[in-house]
Specification:
CATH architecture of the largest domain: 3-Layer(aba) Sandwich
Strand content: 5-15%
Mean pLDDT: 91
Structural class: alpha/beta
Radius of gyration: 19 Å
CATH superfamily of the largest domain: NADH:ubiquinone oxidoreductase-like, 20kDa subunit
CATH topology of the largest domain: Rossmann fold
Helix content: 25-40%
Low-confidence stretches: none
Number of domains: 2
Shape: globular
Strand order of the largest sheet: 2-1-3-4-5
Largest sheet: 5 strands, parallel
Order of helices and strands: EHHEEHEHHEHHHHHHH
Distance between the termini: 58 Å
Length: about 260
């Protein structure tokens, strides 16, 4: 019997689910090996059936999200979070450092009808997550690598190398050293293939913190590039601001916004 797979969406832009659809013809091959029970963006809808693997995109931002994610956990053998929203709150978590009342009123004409949590949370703050795939968005290679591992009964590899190592492997010139750009590569995990430095731009930290991040050291380096403290904190407070490794900078940003 083929393993059952589900792909669930919470608060997100749907971009990480495209990593499945971007497989093209290989997606048909995948369907020969697994039975996709729920994947609203691709067609099948069945949110409550028990499955072997659930991929979860998006952060938790409403009371209903809490109820649904617990149901997903109860119905799944493995829960795999995909993307910055699911692993670290995503851009939605930026409202955690804003005045929520003012934020809701500025967006919605009838804020009394809006029910949101006090703060946006990554999936792992509410349930046990078996593996995390980082990125904004994740890519097809990451998804297929994890699927191959799980279907083969092997623990997926957790890539935590810093982006700087990827640049070195590709013989790319450091944009921070050569061009004075405030690159996040020294604290960001690889996975994108050093996409931005590959076209002469600085890394924005889309893939989240790498292992053994030294935020203070990078912040000091940014200050030598003529960035003030607010500009430095804003480099970190973006895609992965709810990740514990970046939370101290998130607080710093809030203080400077005041």
């Amino acid at each position: 019997m083929k393993p059952k797979v589900a792909v669930h969406k919470f608060s997100s832009c749907d971009g990480c689910q495209l990593a499945f659809l971007n497989m093209g013809e290989d997606l048909l091959t995948l369907f020969n090996h697994v039975n996709v029970i729920h994947f609203a963006e691709a067609g099948p809808v069945n949110m409550t059936e028990a499955v072997d693997i659930s991929f979860v995109e998006g952060s938790l931002s409403t009371p209903d999200d809490i109820r649904r994610i617990k149901q997903v956990r109860d119905n799944s053998t493995y829960v795999i979070t995909i993307g910055a929203c699911a692993t670290a709150g995503g851009l939605q978590a930026l409202r955690n450092i804003a005045d929520q009342g003012d934020w809701v009123k500025s967006v919605y004409a009838t804020p009394d009808y809006i029910s949101v949590l006090e703060k946006v949370m990554p999936i792992g703050e509410q349930i046990k997550v078996d593996f995390e795939i980082h990125g904004c968005p994740v890519n097809t290679h990451q998804i297929t690598a994890v699927l191959r591992s799980l279907l083969g009964g092997v623990t997926p590899v957790n890539e935590q190398d810093k982006l700087c190592l990827e640049c070195k492997r590709q013989n790319r010139v450091c944009v921070m050293v050569s061009r004075g750009f405030p690159c996040m590569g020294p604290v960001t995990r690889t996975g994108c293939g050093a996409l931005c430095p590959g076209v002469g731009r600085d890394c924005y930290g889309c893939y989240g913190p790498a292992e053994n991040t030294n935020i203070n050291s990078l912040g000091k380096q940014f200050s030598t590039l003529q960035l003030d403290q607010k500009q430095i904190s804003h480099r970190f407070v973006s895609f992965n601001s709810a990740d514990p490794a970046f939370r101290s900078v998130e607080t710093m940003s809030a203080e400077h916004d005041d």
